[in-house]
Design goal:
435 residues; alpha/beta; Nucleotidyltransferase, domain 5; 16 helices; binds zinc ion
């Protein structure tokens, strides 16, 4: 008898199922099959909660469990059906359930948690394949885990908020990501990129939380600015410096392309010096190599068609460099403002159409441009999180359900939580009723 007890304890430790006793185990071509039965002799009625030990019948259900020693594992659970002993109860009979194998469950609780954890970094389809369950089962497990992790996030309102958009798919082309720039945490992902999108989200915050937001960094998108200036009067809007650099680079590229069309009546090719210098022209001056300089000079000479380099391309390139240098060399807002005025006069002296368009955009966003020198806030963190968002999309080969996509993105942006070793489950049988 003593020997049997020891074996039971050993199998319980190995299986990690604290509410069950292992009856049998066999190895099949499909993995390990373990037959178990609930250790307790009674079970609570799901309606009245009265404990009953009057077994009516048995039935065996197959439940997917976590892998065991490198093998897939399925449980054959001998579930007992009990008669309710409470004469006044409307439920005449019920099947037992535990916290480890809830009612009607086809997957054990611990396996569901494992699927949920695995789903943070994998596509739902690959989790379903790994655990040999259907796609909806895997999706449900991942969503449950994601919702739990997201609900546990600290609820501190952001003081500095980053806003940026990402592409989704043709039916919902844009999503807007809202990032706490101090903690680097993705606060929310919302559908659309209009002023209303952001305003609606801000309205979900309490007045106090809204007041906490002091700085908002966004790209030069009028919708975002309108939403912030109308909803958050105390917040300073800053246009992201990397987007300004991108606009300046775009002006250089546009001039290079236009000039090649004007000269060659076709788009650029490898034989065109301008095309060969396309990447060098968009680099910051300190990052250009010796070979890069030769390519830039050749491109500028080809632009003028003479030995001189002073043409549209050179002026636009120089304007781009001057503009981006303001960010590094300005000591404060007033200093930056003086440099910007000089930059306007430079553009006025060299009125290349693309450059004039850039200067017009900058002048429309001048306040937000100069606000950088008060706050030194950038959207670097937001762009980093955009990379994760794109990664999630590619892992899943695209998404169509916005809710699933949003949940997966927010889940993926949370730190990875290691699996806990299974502690002995509660011995209170009524705990299973809440599942
Ligand atoms: Zn009952």
């Amino acid at each position: 008898m003593e020997n049997k007890t020891t074996t039971n304890d050993l199998t319980r430790v190995l299986s990690g199922l604290w509410e069950y006793t292992v009856c049998d185990a066999s190895e099949t071509s499909d993995g390990l099959v373990v037959e178990v039965i609930a250790t307790r002799l009674d079970a609570p009625c799901p309606v009245c909660g009265t404990l009953s030990d009057r077994v009516k019948s048995y039935r065996i259900s197959t439940v997917v469990d976590s892998s065991c020693f490198g093998r897939r594992c399925r449980l054959l659970v001998r579930r007992r059906a009990f008669r309710c002993v409470n004469a006044g109860c409307e439920r005449k009979s019920f099947t037992e359930a535990t916290s480890e194998v809830p009612r009607r469950a086809r997957v054990t609780t611990r396996c569901r948690v494992q699927m949920g954890v695995a789903g943070r970094d994998c596509s739902t389809a690959s989790v379903a394949a790994e655990f040999a369950v259907s796609w909806p089962t895997a999706c449900k497990a991942i969503k449950a885990q994601a919702e739990q992790v997201i609900a546990q996030r600290p609820k501190t309102p952001p003081r500095r908020l980053g806003i940026d958009e990402t592409r989704f798919w043709w039916k919902v082309p844009w999503l807007t990501g809202l990032v706490d720039l101090d903690t680097g945490e993705l606060v929310e992902v919302i559908e659309g990129r209009t002023s209303k999108t952001v305003t609606d989200w801000l309205e979900t915050l309490s007045d106090n939380d809204q007041q906490q937001i002091k700085v908002v960094v966004c790209d030069p998108h009028a919708g975002y600015r309108h939403a912030i200036t109308t909803s958050l009067e105390q917040a300073t809007v800053v246009v992201d410096r990397f987007h300004v650099a991108m606009l300046a680079n775009k002006a250089v590229t546009d001039v290079r392309r236009r000039r090649i069309w004007e000269q060659q009546d076709r788009r650029g090719r490898k034989i065109d010096p301008g095309w060969r210098a396309r990447k060098d022209l968009c680099r910051r001056v300190e990052n250009v190599t010796d070979n890069g300089w030769s390519r830039i000079i050749a491109a500028m000479q080809a632009d003028t068609g003479t030995d001189s380099i002073e043409g549209d391309l050179a002026w636009t390139w120089a304007a781009k460099e001057h503009l981006t240098t303001i960010y590094d060399s300005s000591l404060n807002r007033a200093h930056a403002h003086r440099q910007l005025l000089w930059w306007y006069s430079y553009v006025a002296d060299h009125p290349v159409p693309e450059l004039v368009r850039l200067a017009t955009t900058i002048s429309k966003w001048e306040n937000e441009f100069l606000a950088y020198f008060d706050t030194r806030a950038t959207n670097g963190v937001t762009e980093g999180l955009n990379r994760i968002i794109k990664h999630v999309k590619r892992l899943g080969f695209g998404y169509q359900n916005t809710d699933n996509y949003r949940l997966k993105i927010l889940y993926r942006c949370q730190p990875l939580q290691p699996l806990q070793s299974t502690p002995p489950a509660t011995t209170d049988p009524t705990a299973a009723l809440s599942l």
